Amino acid sequence: MSGRVFGFDRLLKIFGRKTQTFDRYVDALPTHQNAIDAIPGWSTAFPEAFGVTAGIVPTYYDQRIFWAIDCFGALEGREVLELGPLEAGHTYMLENAGAHVDAVEANQLAFMRCLVAKEILGLRKARFWLGDFVKWLEQTDKSYDLIVASGVLYHQHDPLRLLELIAQRASAVFIWTHVVSEAMPVSDPRRSVMADVPEEHSFHGVTVRAYPRSYVKTQSNPAFCGGMRDDHRWLDKDDLIAALRALGFDDIRTNHDDPDHVYGPAISIFARRS
């Protein structure tokens, strides 16, 4: 079997479970909770009505996604691409708003959690795909009404390439991301894992500052939900908005501007080409 495709024994090793045959069985009453407990690392919660316990973050009721939907308008029947669905909380919101969703997740454990969530939440208009969403954007012929990129841009080795691909595949995008801004000077302890001096990239006629950053070995945690390599870049906030304008997005709105976020300044951006 190809090293890029995981087998069941490999999954068991990833989950930290023994691989003896009889340890693969669950002899309890079948419940959704059993499926949740079979996969470690849950970060997000389920709506209380489902009566299950997973993580604690209520992504199924995220004000950032409500705002994105309000900016875009009616999603009924629209085609949405979700980058990095994590555990399908935002997917649930998008489907409830009427969208058909392609959700692309590269993290094997997160992908399996999405499939469990899909079953528990009864999602019917969302499909989950395991793999690199950059390659999806590079190779698909499909165009989307909206791309949702929440919590993924700042995990990219080449965030500007991702922005270019998004612009090629959709006329509207929602981004929630960490950024570097004046609210985060070099002396800020949140900068301790980040390069002091940024790279400067010429991008469609504008200069964009990008700051290399490390995960500092947090990727060993089963709940890790970052990028695929420990070499990612955060963009300067003003430069990010300038880059979106350079790509032709002329309707740009911002919200949830949080310079005091524990991990670094964060912001929601909705951008559309008119």
Automatic annotation (TrEMBL):
**Has keyword Methyltransferase?**
yes
A biological process (GO) annotation for this entry? methylation
Q: Name one GO molecular function term.
A: methyltransferase activity
The protein in question is named Class I SAM-dependent methyltransferase
Indicate yes or no for the key word Methyltransferase.
yes
Alphabetically list the UniProt keywords: Methyltransferase, Transferase
Cross-referenced CDD domains, in alphabetical order? AdoMet_MTases
**Gene3D superfamilies assigned to the protein according to its UniProt record, in alphabetical order:** Vaccinia Virus protein VP39 (3.40.50.150)
Which InterPro entries does the record match to this protein?
A: SAM-dependent_MTases_sf
Organism for this UniProt entry: Methylosinus sporium
